[in-house]
Amino acid sequence: VLLLGTLLWAPWWALHGAPLAELSGDQDFQLFLHKNLEFTRKIKGDVAALQRVVCDTFQLCKEEELLLVRQDLGIAQARLEQCHSRTFQAEACFSQIRDGLRTYQGSLAAVLELLPGHAGLVETLQLDAANLSSNIQQQMEDLGMATVTYPSEGQGPLPTFSSRFHHQVGGFFILANFQRFLETAYRALRHLARL
């Protein structure tokens, strides 16, 4: 019995006492996590579809070929360091996911300008990002979590692109960064769902 208790406690200890221990069995919280895991998966699929459009339309498909241009563009990746398991804090992670979704919702305007023929998909993605951000905000309020707003590093107004090519590469990196952001957010939600 002692060994079993130790084994059951080990995952919590490894996470430095993730603060949601009391919520792990909460049905509403679990429902929230599972619904938003599906929602995040849908958004990831839509971002991937837009990435294919950028690849097919502009032949911008490989990130490593564009790294030199990227340095000139000043397109920042929304931060999610609070969602990595070593430093995991649920309130901080949720706050960063919420803030990052708002950032990408805004930066998708550059993609919308770039791909007017795919406005429906881009607008759906903006709406989905806004809805997921609102879901997370609402859940945090429902759970009585402190909401933290992280300073947005280099994420002010949209970058101004000096050429059509820079705009295309900028759109490529906005989508690539958003996809990475969503993968990390998905892993964080899945991690919470397994606790």
UniProtKB/TrEMBL annotation:
InterPro entries: 4_helix_cytokine-like_core, GCSF/MGF, IL-6/GCSF/MGF, IL6/GCSF/MGF_CS
Domain of life per record: Eukaryota
Protein location: Secreted
Name of the molecule in the record: MGF factor
GO cellular component terms, semicolon-separated: extracellular region
Family stated for the protein in its record: Belongs to the IL-6 superfamily.
GO terms for MF: cytokine activity; granulocyte colony-stimulating factor receptor binding; growth factor activity
GO biological process entries: immune response; positive regulation of myeloid cell differentiation
Organism: Brachypteracias leptosomus (short-legged ground-roller)
Pfam families: GCSF
PROSITE patterns in alphabetical order: INTERLEUKIN_6
Signal peptide interval: 1-17
Keyword entries, A-Z: Disulfide bond, Glycoprotein, Growth factor, Secreted, Signal
Gene3D superfamilies assigned: 1.20.1250.10
